Amino acid sequence: MTVPEIMTYLEAHGSESIKKILVKHGVQEPFFGVKIEYLKPIQKKIKMDYQLAKDLFDTGNADAMYLAGLIADDQQMSKADLQYWVESAKSQNILEYTVPWVATGSKYGYELALEWIDSSNESTAAAGWSTLANWVSHHPDNELDLESLKGLMQRVIQTIHSSPNRVRSTMNTFIICVGTYVEPLNAEAIQAAKDMGVVMVDKGGTACKTPDAGEYISKAVNKGTLGKKKKDVKC
User: Fold this and answer.
1) Which residues of 77-111 are buried (b: 16+ CB within 10 A; e: fewer)?
2) Which positions ≥6 away from 127 have C-beta within 8 Å?
3) How far apart are CA 135 and CA 137, in angstroms?
4) pLDDT digit string (tens) for 192-213?
5) Cα-Cα-Cα-Cα dihedral of 162, 126, 170, 26, to 10°?
6) Given this model, what pLDDT does residue 13 score?
7) Helix and strand numbers, DSSP H then E, in the chain
8) Is the dihedral of CA 28, 31, 35, 39 positive or negative?
9) For position 110, what pLDDT does the model report?
10) Distance between CA atoms of residues 216 and 194, nearest Å
């Protein structure tokens, strides 16, 4: 499929009612309001296409950019590609889901995440913490720098309440993912959740709630899924 063909398909499957919902969740124009269920057939057909993914991302259309993440050949993505994506994205779903997903599957995810969390730009920093959350949920524990992760958890404890809104949200998710997916650091993550206390995040008038990190981690332990890694972070 070509970019024009895909854009025509996306426009035909857009919905004004979905657009209204997505706007409340931080998705910015231009976009058509396409449900993910309509993106899946294209993903299944294309599977992976490095250049097509980059071309779709370059449209600036949030629906096309989301699809770009689903079909991206993560291993072919260069550091420059990923940096361009994080700098070009405007919509919350692209910054906190699409870009982190692709970065996690690339060779540069952890390296870039550590750079992004130091950014003074709220969106870039949020993407960095989201990438770290995805990284620990996907990569085996023996491939993780556990001491570095301990230091990052301490950083969250010390700075989360003074950080920008979206950074607070993704920091909280990072603690949840460490506690849920990194078994050797489960106890430290539970303690970090206690030390953080209640994390307040402005959800923009939506019904979404900020999960309690300690409760979320405990549910994973009770379900017997502690340390069970995700095969694929994209959805």
Assistant:
1) beeebbbebbeebebbbbbbbbbbbbbbbbebbbe
2) 86, 89, 95, 96, 99, 100, 116, 170
3) 5
4) 999 999 999 998 888 899 999 9
5) 110
6) 98
7) 14, 0
8) negative
9) 98
10) 12
Single-letter amino acid, residue 214: G
| Selection from 216, 82, 202, 81 nearest residue 137 by Cα | 216
pLDDT of amino acid 207: 85
Kindly give the parts of the chain with pLDDT less than 70: none
| Residue whose structure tokens are 């913490």 | 129
Q: What's the rounded Cα separation, in Å, for the pair 81 and 58?
A: 11
Percent of the chain with pLDDT over 90: 97
SS3 per residue for 121-168: CHHHHHHHHHHHHHHHHHCCHHHCCHHHHHHHHHHHHHHHHHCCHHHH
Closest CA to 79 of 116, 32, 40: 116
- State the Rg of the chain over Cα: 18
Note the pLDDT of residue 177. 98
Backbone angles phi, psi at 118, to 5 degrees: -90, -5
Q: How many CB atoms lie within 10 A of CB 118?
A: 9
Q: Which amino acid belongs to residue 46? A: I
